[in-house]
């Protein structure tokens, strides 16, 4: 099977590599073309432009950093729009909001192309291990045709219906994640403030109904006030904000998410935006020089 | 090994039964003595009063329903205080607050007795399966002597230091649980309000870093608006309140827990206090007859 | 002094009437031209289009219902842009967001025109009484030239600096208002729930440091669960959302405003969006059929 | 009219002085008797003990610092209980919780005495000016008999019904106050973070529907980050906590108050407990060394 792949950042590189290793014929493109070399050595073809990739391949997958980059590869000179046409499929796996994805869907469809949004849950490690969770939405036939590639990149893919549902599902999941991280941080600080051992709290949590990989993986580092970035706090805060905006449209009142969002904003204000989102723990902590009662 | 057991409610019955099955010589007592019969048939001795049980056994375990019951078996006529003395150990596994447990510790110690608080995490099913998590605090030697019984009743026991730490650890754990339940409810309702399939959300969550038994077990019922009581909402709200009060003493600011507590209060106000704590989902739900925009 | 006036809704009609009564020579325009007749009888000239008004008058004031209407009178055929030019001033008193106002400023300035945003604080009654508070920002000279008109329409005008500051100041004020309304509602419900007389609470508040016209005016109706619309709840919620978004840009964490916003969203979900924003009181109230404990 | 007065702190001294100036025959007592001298020079008699004051006077007013002091003057040797009897009235104007006041009511009534709780709203300045707001509850006849004294000490008194209602009304009022202070702080910080002039915000607020003495008096100092103590933040936080507990009993969900309470806790954790409650402003402020985005 032949696929194009646009965007070779941390995620895109790992994902396209897995495709190559699994026998896919892959044509890659990246804004900084030098990044294509490593993959070329491993057997990838290189496209000069997104348009060139689309011209060559029936299916083109994109994994870009943000909405702006996702739109650029479509609309810029040499962009996807110049070659997309009936018969071709475009699959955007970038994490972008529903309005960006809808815009791309519109213009791709207008040219007769087929479109699938397919944001993923999981970061660097799952990308390398082919263990991503893929939240696809849009053209159902395209979804079914591209499953072999999804099976290589992820451990599970979901088809969620109309375009926008993939982006929204990811927001819902990340919103729950952000609230849980705050709940966890409050528990850690309360344990400490009450004279309890925080590591014992982790042990107790690990045995009960709330046991989950996130607490287990991030807890020990948080106790050490270490927050190596897997998912930047500023992105988590952005997702909380977008999720709350989504709730706004649907008249869903979400006081826990709102409180968590304000905590992430406080953390951003403290200069922690580029740390891992678990750094929101610092917002909850009692200031060390506090003397108040 | 010979142990006394006070209190044969849902939890106490299951726990004492496990002790009998494992070869412990158990003397039981219950306020309603008729409840002792079933256990007597299985080999338990029956004590007429808590005092009689303590007189007979070196170790007496209690599993009562609330602080008031926990204090009654100590102070009432025929209560524990009449027979507790040097050499004897009293282990209270009821879920009570730190002040109740401290009071019991004080009077038991004043008589020369040894005291251990040992509240558990887990409800009916884990009690029956001997899979409780035991949060012990108080007399360390007594803890070590009673471990054979803990090993029968629980899958893991922790020794947490001074009396009060067991109760407080349980509050911290339940506080995290209550906040998580709210975060989860908000996610479920946002998914629904945004046109996403709630069961798919459960599937996505089950595959990611937040996967946990609580979401998996309660989620499907919550989607059906079914809340069979495993842990009553009014008890969850009480624990949230006590945890926030604990944070008050320690100057720990916990906005997520506070927001969750208010949601549980709202649920109580809606008449859901005796349902499972997952019924807080009803607070988040959009009223069905809503026409607002 | 001669001024144009675009938009004769509830606010615009009252404001232009005050200008006429004070001796201003006013040329009015309204999308539904029939609304101009009443003012024409009182001495106003009528313009066929916004462009016609701008052509005739050195100063044109606009009071439109929302950002979309504010943009239409600029960009549509027969719009302000066709006639705005050096020497002319355009003053938009509509309540719109900073990005709308910045866009208008940009295109008016590009044509050599001068621009002032001047949203107002106050609704129908203050408009009729010439008691509005005017939050002006943009061209300073234009501000000084138009002061005679502001003095007729308002009791006080402020010059706040660059375009956008007027819109943002209004958001800050409305955010405080929304939070206060929630605080007030919670107090009313707590009084009732605690067996206290709510009218007495109003009396006590009226005598103390928190005494304010809003509590005094809305309190008695709220106690009766009556919410005649002075400022629609859905607009209040929109302003809360925009204020929180403003805080997002500035890294200001605002948990009270966030909690208030969620309460307004809940009220919208209950179908109260078109009622007065004081209807958020209904969100706090204990359900009448509640049986929970 | 002859009255006893127990407690000559800042408030009690000002209040008893006003009684003397208005022609009341006052017998004072204070734990540190030396504080009585100044009032003795102005015509007061001095009692050796609370009991001596009660023996001498038909009406005894108390203004103590906290629940513990309020209970001490009742129960200690030489306390009120030794002389209270049918015909005598005891009026406690201290700010204490409903349970303390109920306890005092119980023992005073048991001796045949009459009891009125009468906490006040207002601090030093209103006490000096005889401008307190008096929230009385308990014996209605006693209330009517003591009105002449209330008229001297306060600008208005309310009779609120059964004992406990005075304490609870004060909690409701202070809860609204604490939430409003947080709303105000968020507005001030958002104004600053958005490039708006904070003093202009004060001016705008002063002209609108939210204008109130508290914003006017505390705002300018808050902008300067100055928080001279009129009402200590730790007492405000305690009142928020008690109000929320009151809501707990009544099943009233109060998310704004809960969020405000957590902000006050944060402020306490920052060492601001003895500053004015307006110091919660510091919790909202963006850290000055923040570099986050």
From TrEMBL, chains A, B, C, D:
It catalyses: 4-hydroxybutanoate + NADP(+) = succinate semialdehyde + NADPH + H(+); glycolate + NADP(+) = glyoxylate + NADPH + H(+). InterPro entries: 3-OH-isobutyrate_DH-rel_CS (IPR002204), 6-PGluconate_DH-like_C_sf (IPR008927), 6PGD_dom2 (IPR013328), 6PGDH_NADP-bd (IPR006115), HIBADH-like_NADP-bd (IPR029154), HIBADH-related (IPR015815), HIBADH-related_NP60_sf (IPR051265), NAD(P)-bd_dom_sf (IPR036291). The active site is at residue 170. One of its GO terms (cellular component) is cytosol. Catalyzes the NADPH-dependent reduction of glyoxylate to glycolate as well as succinic semialdehyde (SSA) to gamma-hydroxybutyrate in vitro. May function in redox homeostasis and play a role in oxidative stress tolerance by detoxifying glyoxylate and SSA generated in glycolate metabolism and GABA metabolism, respectively. Belongs to the HIBADH-related family. NP60 subfamily. This is 6-phosphogluconate dehydrogenase NADP-binding domain-containing protein. It comes from Amborella trichopoda.
